[in-house]
């Protein structure tokens, strides 16, 4: 019997085809203006598909679908899903740990080199025949100090990929790891002091909200670069905008920001030391294929009465999760 699924986020065509072929009836409910309020035909839906870091699933939605059994998110993060409400109702929540880690790590490194070497600005200058602007001296990446906030799957992949560049690697995590050769520091503030390049690869949520604040950016300093491929909530917009406008940091390259997808006015006019991408770090074909396979596996297991493969850690277990 076909199963009706409420889609609180847009589903890429490749994933949509696979889900439909497997017998799921997909109902688009991704308009941000609507997706916090249950639809009129709420009793129809037994499953939700969403994005845990953007669309999420509110308490109102979870309690408003009387026959809801499972929520699947199309990535590793689940910070905007009310997992507490889901547990109260006995609803299973799944995510995709590791499915997009390789893509996001690649994107972080691409952003780091782009902001350091002025790739985006060089492209624009070349197109307007402005060779002088595009050829000004810029810093190297090789031989510098790299700070990684969040040594989970993605943070570790970033460090491993950059290991051949003679970088001194520091990291901050919920707790030190005894299985990595990198130097642990106690706080994001201290990590910033130690870094030329500061990459955020930490989970979102209340625990990390606005952790990289004005003081941390000041500690990074006028020669330091910020790269964020994790969650926009970690860096307050006004603090970042001020640091960039007043040259308190050398530059930032971010794939995420507070208020996305609408770019805040405070960042819109900053063009000379800021690179922006539209939360596309995980948007690799291979990553989308992996999450489609995992979503189908979790849905199939659940609706056949078996435990799902990748349940999210519930509130009291969240401290154990290290993947962003």
What does this structure look like?
The chain is of the alpha/beta class. It is built from twelve helices and twelve strands. Helix 3 (83-89) links the parallel strand 4 (70-73) and strand 5. It is elongated, with a radius of gyration of 21 Å.
Brief descriptors of the model:
elongated, five-stranded parallel beta sheet, seven-stranded parallel beta sheet, 324 residues, 12 helices, Rossmann fold, 2 domains, single chain
- According to CATH, what is the topology of the largest domain? Rossmann fold
The CATH top-level class label of the largest domain: Alpha Beta
**Looking at the structure, what is the overall shape?**
elongated
Mean pLDDT: 92
Poorly predicted residue ranges: 316-324
Structural class call reads: alpha/beta
How much helicity do the residues have? 25-40%
- How many distinct helices? 12
CATH superfamily of the largest domain, by name, is NAD(P)-binding Rossmann-like Domain
The count of β-strands is: 12
Please summarize what this structure is.
With 324 residues, the protein is an alpha/beta fold. It has helices spanning 13-21, 59-64, 83-89, 101-117, 119-127, 131-134, 153-161, 188-193, 214-220, 237-245, 265-268, 285-303; strands at 3-7, 24-28, 47-50, 70-73, 92-94, 145-149, 168-172, 183-184, 197-200, 225-228, 251-254, 274-276. The strands form two sheets. A seven-stranded parallel sheet has the order 8-7-6-9-10-11-12.
């Amino acid at each position: 019997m076909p199963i009706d699924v409420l889609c609180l986020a847009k589903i890429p065509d490749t994933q949509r085809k696979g889900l439909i072929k497997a017998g799921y009836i997909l109902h688009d409910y991704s308009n941000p203006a609507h997706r916090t309020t249950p639809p009129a035909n709420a009793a129809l839906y037994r499953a939700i598909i969403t994005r845990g870091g953007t669309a999420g699933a509110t308490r109102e939605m979870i309690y408003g679908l009387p026959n809801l059994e499972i929520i699947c998110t199309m990535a590793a993060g689940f910070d905007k899903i009310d997992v507490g409400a889901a547990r109260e109702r006995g609803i299973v929540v799944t995510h995709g740990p590791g499915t997009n880690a390789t893509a996001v790590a690649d994107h972080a490194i691409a952003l780091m080199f782009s902001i350091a070497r002025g790739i985006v600005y060089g492209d624009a200058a070349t197109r307007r025949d402005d060779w002088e602007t595009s050829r000004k001296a810029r810093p190297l990446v090789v031989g510098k100090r790299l700070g990684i906030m969040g040594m989970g799957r993605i943070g570790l992949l970033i460090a491993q990929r950059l290991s051949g560049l003679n970088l001194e690697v520091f990291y901050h995590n919920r707790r030190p790891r005894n299985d990595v050769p990198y130097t642990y520091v106690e706080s994001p503030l201290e990590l910033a002091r130690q870094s030329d390049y500061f990459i955020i690869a930490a989970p979102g949520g209340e625990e990390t909200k606005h952790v990289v604040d004005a003081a941390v950016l000041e500690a990074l300093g006028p020669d330091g670069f910020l790269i964020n491929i994790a969650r926009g909530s970690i860096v307050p917009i006004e603090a970042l905008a001020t640091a960039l406008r007043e040259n308190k940091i050398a530059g930032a390259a971010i794939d995420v920001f507070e208020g996305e997808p609408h770019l805040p006015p405070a960042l819109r006019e900053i063009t000379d030391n800021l690179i922006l991408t539209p939360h596309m770090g995980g948007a690799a074909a291979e990553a989308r294929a992996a999450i489609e396979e995992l979503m189908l596996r979790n849905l199939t297991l659940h609706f056949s009465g078996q435990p799902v493969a990748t349940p999210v850690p519930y509130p009291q277990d969240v401290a154990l999760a290290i993947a962003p």
